[in-house]
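To close the section, here is one more complete example, presented without commentary so you can practise reading it yourself. The ligand is magnesium ion.
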Amino acid sequence: MQYNIAVIPGDGIGPEIITEARKVLDRIGTKYGHSFLYTEVLMGGVSIDATGVPLTDEALEIAKNSDSVLLGAVGGNVGQSNWYSLPPNLRPEAGLLAIRKGLNLFANIRPAILFDELKGACPLKDEIIGGGFDFVVMRELTGGLYFGERKTVEENGIRKATDTLVYDENEIRRIAKWAFEIAMKRNKKVCSVDKANVLDSSRLWRQITKEVAKDYPEVELSDMLVDNCAMQLVKDPRQFDVILTENMFGDILSDEASMITGSIGMLASASLGDTKLGLYEPSHGSAPDIAGQNKANPIATILSAAMMLRYSFDLEQEADQIEAAVKAVLKKGYRTVDIMSEGMRLVGTKEMGDLIVSEL
Ligand code: NAI
Ligand code: MG
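Output:
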């Protein structure tokens, strides 16, 4: 089978980590008889330097017509133009918002996995992490507080600002469905996180989530208030399988979840919509401080490519293989600088990619 992938290397370490992810995909292609065709797309600072804007209509069109999008990272200040001096809507990061919106990617999934080999990097106590944890945070990405009506006014000399948290039932239903679908492929538990003791939008969230749950009798649904969830993530992260939540709660909780896994260089993500087309990218940025030095950890991007195989192409076994290969290389003691610890073997970006490929 042939798959068309729009590839966006972007800025900083982006091109280096994308090169490694492509090597891994190509190995999987050879092994299983798939052909992955890549179309390179400019986005971010490199696009600003070439075209004046962070994402052109033509670039977005290529992404729309592909089977999925694999992204490195954008931003930093390493191009010809001084990107930081540009207005927000013309900066490299504006390309990210434009592509998520342009592809209608309303569901953001961030796995939080504590690899056995990296337990030392986890800030939680041994008795809490036990045998390690593996859950995903499913964050609604195109609604809620960040997209509701907002205004700032001055009344009688008092400055006043308003943001609005709005969800309609369709927006809740479609993300809830995604969460249940993903739970079906995992340990069949969804914890829906809200603030239903205070917010109307959360009460609707709870109601709709329960309605969706009727279509998934095998999945166990629980509700949790967001403040409690913030505590539970550090008290007992092993209780979670899929955490489903609205945009702002998910923004905050997914950062908390990523911290307890230890390293930003390990964290993959997927942004999904109504179709099979998804956007896959590491959770970190363009790391301009280490760009071009063969120091970046490519694992987050490689694991994002594995998520692409699983969610966009339904290549479950191939995705499992990539994840197993990553674990095997870590088990053998190879580390990039961000996850390096005493007694381990330090390798660069390219070597880490090669090791994972040879494991496959
Ligand atoms: P960052 O994630 O790029 O870097 C933070 C720290 O983590 C740095 O010390 C960096 O060297 C290290 N780091 C990040 N990824 C790594 C990897 N794969 N291997 C080893 N070390 C790694 O965040 P920062 O510095 O706040 O942002 C840099 C630029 O990236 C900014 O312009 C920011 O707007 C942009 N950014 C882009 C994102 C995206 O494209 N999705 C997401 C976050 C930030
Ligand atoms: Mg955030």
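Once you have examined the tokens, check your reading against these statements. The chain has a mean pLDDT of 94. The pocket of NAI (ligand 1) is lined by residues 73-76, 93, 96, 264-265, 281, 284-290, 296-297, 300, 338 (CB under 6 Å).
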